[in-house]
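Hey, I'm writing a tutorial for new members on how sequence and structure tokens pair up, and I'd like a real worked example in the thread rather than a made-up one. If someone can provide the structure for the chain below, I'll link this post from the tutorial.
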Amino acid sequence: MNHHNSINSIAWKQRLAGFLIHLFTASGAYVGVLALLAIYDQKIILSFWLMFAAILIDSVDGLFARIVKIKLAVPEIDGALLDNIVDFFNYTLVPAFFLLVVPVVPHALRFSCLVAITFSSAYQFTQVDAKTSDHFFKGFPSYWNIVVFYLFFWQMNPWMNAAILYLLAFLSFVPIKYVYPSRLDYLTHHKTLRVSMLLATIVWGIATAGLLWVYPQTNHFLVLISMAYLVMYAVISLYRTWVPLVNTISLAHAE
């Protein structure tokens, strides 16, 4: 069966669903442009809400794509490439522009910070195994929009903020496996623990959105939840780097 006939054999509803999901993924870039405009207009809180919306789109579009078997529904569009383009824009370029406009790092270090995060992200996104066979990110996964959120809300010394950015950029080149929150297949054998990790991620998102909602006030309980998740995420990522589910992966490949 040739390519044309294979497309004709796909139900039109599945084709339509596939195109709508690709459109949904692409809408993340539109939201990112609005975030740039908000940063430029010094509407910082609005820009964070827009960055949050872009993350939400990225968090669920893959699930939708797997449900409709999007590679079969729309074989002529490379969904992974589309996702990477939108992600590089939202997770790297938007926060890079944020660093240019919002004084969270010393003025003298702005451009070196931009070099650090853009070059490290370019490396991280283009590795052949940037997403490992067991569904982890290899190297710090360019969560720069989340990083600038915390740097802004922590209100730390700008030199410390720059040091954190340099460290995370360096970690992009270190082959630590970071949890992919929406792909937990090989996180653990126990379904309950996988569901718990997913729920913890959702709770973190709600708590972090809550911090954004109450700003410029703060809420110590929400801060505790947000920070506890970051610590848990780092610990689990390090553990799975050193203790992978080798047997599970081998069995999956054997099948």
